[in-house]
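Exercise: predict the structure of this protein bound to iron/sulfur cluster.
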Amino acid sequence: MSEPSRDCPLCPRLAAFRDEWRGREPGWHNAPVPSFGAADARLLIVGLAPGLRGANATGRPFTGDYAGDLLYSTLIDFGFATGEFLARPDDGLTLQDCRITNAVRCVPPQNKPETAEIAQCRPFLESVIAEMPRLKVILVLGQIAHQSTVRAFGEKPSRVPFKHGGEAALGRVMLVSSYHCSRYNTNTGVLTEAMFRDVFRRIRTLIA
Ligand code: SF4
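Solution:
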């Protein structure tokens, strides 16, 4: 069971936030955001959680806010996506050998999920990983996605600490870590476009 139900009740705070926004913006998705891309992909990208006006509104990961602009343009450049990214789920963009999911499927207030919520949603992440027979590389964006993915493999984050550009073997896959491609990180220079492209260059090598 890799996809939660539309009314998943496991995190009461997030379910209440979802309901609040269903009332405020009835045209938005306002539900757990499903994974994007085919299960036979060799690359899985794990983000943090849907952005309120991004994936929570559009229903597709990284679609509708700045983080998606950088992520999808890089994916297209490195052959992991084809088409044109227009920040809408009906833009026709297709992932190639790549799948995208989030560590937490529901939008958290202030973009900050609580530890218990990350743990509640982890079984969905574990299922996404388990249903990908050809998976070779997992790219995690940011520390929370990193830690939850490490735990999904039964490891302790203290054994596999987060580091931008870091790599670690986790069972059958290679974990590659990057700073999150958020507007905040790019505006402050924590993550530059060149740094992000270097990560994807390395992923291409690992997959080949
Ligand atoms: S974050 Fe995950 S576990 Fe929590 S309510 Fe949403 S889908 Fe369910």
